[in-house]
Amino acid sequence: MLKKFWDWILDSIRIDEDIALHEIRIFWIVVLVPFGFIFWLFFSLTQDLILDGLYNPHVSSESLASFINYYAFPITLLTIPVTLAVMINRFHSSKQKAKSNRLVEQNNMANNFYNHYKYFIEHCEAINARFASREITVKPEVLYKKMFPHSSINKNVNEVDISIIDEAFKSYVSNFYNFIKHEKNVGLNGVFTEMNEYSEPTEGLKLFF
Q1: Strand 136-138 vs strand 205-207: parallel, antiparallel, or unpaired?
Q2: Do residues 87 and 24 share a domain?
Q3: Is the pLDDT assigned to residue 209 strictly greater than 50?
Q4: Is 96 inside any structural domain?
Q5: What pLDDT score does 124 carry?
Q6: Do the Cβ atoms of 106 and 171 come closer than 8 Å?
Q7: 83: domain range?
Q8: Which segments cross the bilayer (predicted)?
Q9: What is the pLDDT of residue 84?
């Protein structure tokens, strides 16, 4: 029960930037509660003035001076709900502005990611066209993920991951040593024979790392 009451209090003072100002509960609390207290003061003072015979409802300079004299304190209090309402409005506008800035930033980040990916694909297609006679094929979707593993629509990271260079170098060194080992086993003539035998079915070099 206590937890529900506490949750109700937190929900009452929460300023939600996704809804209109007049739908926020705390806005009406800071306006109506002080106004209710001020109305009670006006009502109490008026009752006392009537009982003391000092209440004069007629409009005159004397009654106006008496009104200002007796009701100066509650009139001054009228500035409190107005000030609090302005504060809530400022807080609400500030949260809406902050959310708008976050949405703009996310939108720009997503656009930057797609533009970067688009230019990367165009670059890969240019490489494929340039080396088409050498049967080289670059798969941009796989290569991009390898080169920019941390890049996404929520986080645009355009720096190449250095690990891809290390992995490629280790792969090339491993293939080189395997070639030397194989050449020692079958001889150089055997290697050329194998290359001639498997040159026709070759589908090309797949550069997707």
Answers
A1: parallel
A2: yes
A3: no
A4: yes
A5: 87
A6: no
A7: 1-102
A8: 26-47, 67-88
A9: 92
Residues 82 and 121 in one domain: no
Residue 140 and residue 50 in one domain: no
Is residue 167 pLDDT above 70, yes or no? yes
| Within-domain flag for 71 | yes
The two three-digit tokens of residue 159, written as one number: 């720096």
Highest mean pLDDT among 119-123, 130-134, 135-139, 145-149: 119-123
Does pLDDT of 196 surpass 70? no
DSSP string over 188-200: HHHHHHHHHHTSS
Residue 207: partners with Cβ closer than 8 Å, 6 or more residues away: 136, 137, 138, 139, 143
Q: Which two tokens stand for residue 113?
A: 């990611």
Cβ atoms within 10 Å of 147's Cβ, excluding its own: 17
Find all residues with CB under 8 Å of 168, minimum gap 6, and list them: 209
What sign for the dihedral angle of Cα 137, 140, 142, 145? positive
Burial class (CB in 10 A: 0-12, 13-18, 19+), 174: exposed
Q: Are residues 83 and 154 in the same domain?
A: no
Mean pLDDT score of the chain: 79
One domain, residues 141 and 173: yes
pLDDT at residue number 36: 93
Hey, what long-range contacts does 180-185 have (CB within 8 A, 24 or more apart)?
Answer: none
**Are 124 and 97 in a shared domain?**
no
**C-beta atoms surrounding 108 within 10 Å:** 11
| Cβ pair 201, 130 in contact under 8 A | no
Contact of 21 with 88, CB cutoff 8 Å: yes
pLDDT tens, 40-62?
Answer: 999 998 888 888 777 777 666 77
